[in-house]
Amino acid sequence: MTEVSIERLTKVFGSSRAVDGISLRIADGEFISLLGPSGCGKTTTLKMIAGFEPVSDGAIRFDGSDVVNVPAEKRDIGMVFQNYALFPHMTVAQNLAFGLEMRKVAKPEMEERIARVLDMVQLGGYAERYPNQLSGGQQQRVALARALVIEPRILLLDEPLANLDAKLREEMRVFIRDLQRRVGITTVYVTHDQAEAMTMSDRVVVMFGGRIAQMGAPADIYEKPETLEVAEFVGQVNLIKGRVTSVDAGEAQISTVFGTVAVPDRGIARPNMTATLALRPEALDLAAAGEPGAAGRITARYYSGSLVDFRVALSSGEELHVQTFPNARYSEGDDVTVRAPLDAFWLIGAAQ
Prior knowledge:
The protein has helices spanning about 40-50, 90-100, 105-120, 135-150, 165-185, 195-200, 220-225, 230-235; strands at about 5-15, 15-25, 30-35, 55-60, 65, 75-80, 155-160, 185-190, 205-210, 210-215, 240-250, 250-255, 260-265, 275-280, 285-290, 295-305, 310-315, 320-325, 335-340, 345-350. It is α+β, with helices and mostly antiparallel strands.
């Protein structure tokens, strides 16, 4: 397998910097997701790793060797696209054989590899079928098999689940992640869907405007966003204003509608500053009016099966999004108390 190192990678289109000097190291066998909105540079980054897009500046190294000037066909990568790109006039086996024939693999080895990888993607009996005889999920697995059968050093996936329905997307997330772990291949996955990135990745790289805003384990990206932009893009978030009362030993004491909370300072808080705190909706709970917490009134209630979403207008003027289990007994118009665990707050920023 292969370690990938990206150093100050840049792509310029005219006067626009689609990718702006990013650096990233992907460990051997690691699953990395590039996550961000459309136009943030994630697909351009993937194309430069693949060799499909020329590099304006910077380096891409596979196991220490710079591949910037190596043609795509000699980089030994497997690629899965959003539209699968299967040849409609070829059977499943013929689709898989195409890349092997280009590499002049002997027929006995070719047949053995095709059989093995079809078993791997649970399509052992589908070798003679054509793409139009397969479901969307089966076509997606054939595309994965075609990328893996050449035994590449790196697997690149560009929004491969975008064309599937919601239930099948969830199934394929688990399937792809389990398959990647079994094969142990270094994988870079591009998506704008934060649930996909969180579910599948060892690390998530959040991008905005051609730059890396934050990278880390999914739990760190979600629970400890470094900027307001990351906090709002990755999941739903409540933003609470407070006043910094003191800072000591790396911890900031902040006065809020929930009382005084202690949070890691992160080097940005000073006494008397106005602080912005992130609070995820599922960390909150509702209690009867008059109990300790932040007083408010439910302005909306949305039942979504496994959760109930509430909008609560606080007496302080702020509005909160609260998620609870469906047995919640509160209704629109009820006066309630919103409760938050003291360790649920995360400091996003502070300003005079």
